[in-house]
Amino acid sequence: MDINSFYDRWRDDRSRVEPTVGFADQVMQRIAEELPADDESTSRRASERSRVVPLARAACCAAALLAALLRVIELLSVFSATGIEN
Predict the structure, then answer these.
(1) Is residue 2 part of a domain?
(2) Rounded to an integer, what distance in angstroms lies between the CA atom of residue 19 and that of residue 26?
(3) How far is CA 58 from CA 15, 24, 50, 70, in A?
(4) pLDDT tens-digit profile of 11-30?
(5) For residue 86, pLDDT beyond 60
(6) Is 79 part of any domain?
(7) What's the number of domains the chain is made of?
(8) Does residue 31 lie within any of the structural domains?
(9) What angle do CA 14, 20, 24 make, to 5 degrees?
(10) How many angstroms separate the CA atoms of 85 and 73, rounded?
(11) What is the span of the domain harbouring residue 73?
């Protein structure tokens, strides 16, 4: 028996399992129970976070740009201090 026929037989045996009645409803109910309540404080916190994230991203980008600029200035100052000419 080759491996493909063995796998096909195993897959056919496993695919014959039928889910119980209402399985999808039970899963969706369980998910709904675990979700946080949708109240005003939750939406307010989400809106506050949505304002903070772009500001934090902009601050990180500005800091990275400043650091890169300082590195370039430092590199150029090395060449000017040693008198190396091109």
Answers:
(1) no
(2) 11
(3) 51, 43, 13, 18
(4) 888 777 777 889 889 999 99
(5) no
(6) yes
(7) 1
(8) no
(9) 105
(10) 17
(11) 61-86
